[in-house]
Amino acid sequence: VYVRMAKALADPGEVAAIYIATIRLFALVLIPPMAVLAATGDVLFPFALSDRWAPVAQIFLLAAIGYTLEAVVSSGATTMQVAGRTELRLRMQAEQSILLVLTTAVAASFGIQAVAGAISLFSLMFLPRNWHYVHRAVPFDKRLAATAILTTAVTSALGAFGFRWLAGWLGLGPWAYAAGIFVAMAVLWLVCAALQAATLRRDFRLLKR
Questions:
Q1: I need a labelling partner for 25 at 20 to 30 A (CA). Which of 15, 76, 161, 190 fits?
Q2: Which residues contact 207 (CB under 8 A, 6 or more apart)?
Q3: What distance in Å separates the CA atoms of residue 28 and residue 148, rounded to the nearest whole number?
Q4: pLDDT of 189-202, one tens digit each?
Q5: How far apart are CA 155 and CA 35, in angstroms?
Q6: How many CB atoms lie within 10 A of CB 101?
Q7: Would you state the pLDDT for residue 88?
């Protein structure tokens, strides 16, 4: 991504398009499996590891949104660096780190579940601030970027919890449930890609140019 943006630096509009393309692609790669794992962790973790790991499922579910969102928009730091605005990147990351430490410190007194939930809530609330800094370096369409995330996120959430309901309704055993998780991931990838097929083709052409 850095190399591709650097080559397009003379055209800020193209750099912005590359940034949105990476958001869409990162969302497609990361959100469907994370949604399925978050929705089915209470069954998968004890099955794959041991019963001791059952409580981790709730923590994973609460924190998954925050960590996934951070990964999906992570190329914003690269965008600022390519544009030569490393001072914006440093300021944003310092601000984010300080606020996150304060948020988790407050949440820690309420338990580990509160910390996990606070991480996700903070990531959602800090996203506009993150995009404010990226936009100062390279102006881009924030609504288009948000749509790129929401299309995959909403589809994945509906599909993941739909699978959870279906698996419970069918009364799947542990092995069938585990196999179904991988099938659900594959189906969600295909559905999310099909819903954005034309746009994804443009994104791939843009990144390969």
A1: 161
A2: 1, 4, 18, 21, 22, 25
A3: 9
A4: 999 999 999 999 99
A5: 10
A6: 10
A7: 94
Integer Cα distance of 129 and 127 in angstroms: 5
Cβ(39)–Cβ(160) below 8 Å:
yes
- Which token pair is 116? 């996990």
Q: Which two tokens stand for residue 80?
A: 């600022």
**pLDDT for residue 209 is more than 80:** no
Distances (CA, A) of 209 to 79, 93, 197: 17, 30, 18
The structure tokens listed for 45 are 């973790």
Q: Which of 162, 150, 131 shows the shortest CA–CA distance to 40?
A: 162
CA dist 7 and 15 (Å) reads 9
pTM: 0.89
Q: Residue 26's pLDDT band (boundaries 50, 70, 90)?
A: very high
In our burial notation (b when 16+ CB lie closer than 10 A, e otherwise), range 104-125 reads eeebeeeeeebbbbbbbbbbee
Q: Tell me: the pLDDT tens digits for 96-128?
A: 999 999 999 999 999 999 999 999 999 999 999
Write down the H helix ranges in 55-196: 56-72, 75-82, 86-108, 112-137, 142-170, 174-195
Cα–Cα distances (Å) from 167 to 31, 41, 43, 180, in that order, read 20, 13, 11, 8
The conformation of residue 53, written as its DSSP 8-state character, comes to G
